[in-house]
Hints:
Helix content: 40-55%
Domain Globin: 4-140
Structural class: alpha/beta
Strand content: 15-25%
Distance between the termini: 22 Å
Keywords: Detoxification, Heme, Iron, Metal-binding, NAD, NADP, Oxygen transport, Transport
Family: Belongs to the globin family.
Largest sheet: 6 strands, antiparallel
Order of helices and strands: HHHHHHHHEEEEEHEEHEHEEHEHEH
Shape: globular
Protein name: nitric oxide dioxygenase
Number of strands: 12
Strand order of the largest sheet: 4-3-6-1-2-5
Number of helices: 14
Pfam families: FAD_binding_6, Globin, NAD_binding_1
Amino acid sequence: xxxxxxxxxxxxxxxxxxxxxxxxxxxxxxxxxxxxxxxxxxxxxxxxxxxxxxxxxxxxxxxxxxxxxxxxxxxxxxxxxxxxxxxxxxxxxxxxxxxxxxxxxxxxxxxxxxxxxxxxxxxxxxxxxxxxxxxxxxxxxxxxxxxxxxxxxxxxxxxxxxxxxxxxxxxxxxxxxxxxxxxxxxxxxxxxxxxxxxxxxxxxxxxxxxxxxxxxxxxxxxxxxxxxxxxxxxxxxxxxxxxxxxxxxxxxxxxxxxxxxxxxxxxxxxxxxxxxxxxxxxxxxxxxxxxxxxxxxxxxxxxxxxxxxxxxxxxxxxxxxxxxxxxxxxxxxxxxxxxxxxxxxxxxxxxxxxxxxxxxxxxxxxxxxxxxxxxxxxxxxxxxxxxxxxxxxxxxxxxxxxxx
Length: 404
């Protein structure tokens, strides 16, 4: 654990909050511009998050949250853990941190100009390295755990695509087995795999995909949605075939609804946000614990819906109750399953609110706007914070979403 920040540094960082509120995004955009000018560092990032502006925004919010909570960093524990897990998935190492320090301090000086006094830059240097040492320490622990786990590994490990399965018009699954035919680390339901991919005409790319296979299988499975304009998702769907080798890092992520012990579980998802819950359902069924499971899923159309037969089969066996919502099409007339109710429209706060059970554990995964809406209605209905769990796609932390 690094030495605590001194009172003067804390005071300066707190005084910078108004400047971060006004110029935080400008600072992080400039920071990434500097970082990405280095090819060795650029290859560590998911470049799609740069193109859509998600990464700079997420970092600006995280830096602002850090400044606001500089005297109460315990409030940021969840965010720090998510960043550490993301870094481990992407194989970020201690030697990468100085590049970020130089880019951040240079960006602060560039954007704030004369307002970025030597005193302010010194304070931010101390604050950066204080947080960096916390992250480096936690990441070292995760790397060591991965190395020690049966079937575990550190770094990139080659996996072969054993099977490629079309789950719907927009989602395809890839079943992955290690090239060396040795055992693989058992993942926790809800975790993801990170990939280092060489995409023709686009170069090296990094992506994270939730694991949709049940823990303990002899393979990992990811289920990928084809994104409009998505460089990697379109390449996976159209070009990658069975037998191709992909570089994969060990399972990572702190969203593990499969570990919940509550007998009342709600899995609340939209779109491809269902994928970690497919793994979760496999974990629930495997451990034999009797649970009351309510699966609520929103999709655009029946053609987009994946794992339909799997969910219907579980419902038929009374393993779960399901509500499926179709936002862009009528309810399909050729589907009728025990314990499955079909709805036209979106999953709304109005529908959720009267059905809230404050004794249940709620697990949420989907677009940020969907998660915000669901978290808001559950919180207002009185569900305790420690019974609301959610997965963040994309960048490592969205401080607005986590309420930091």
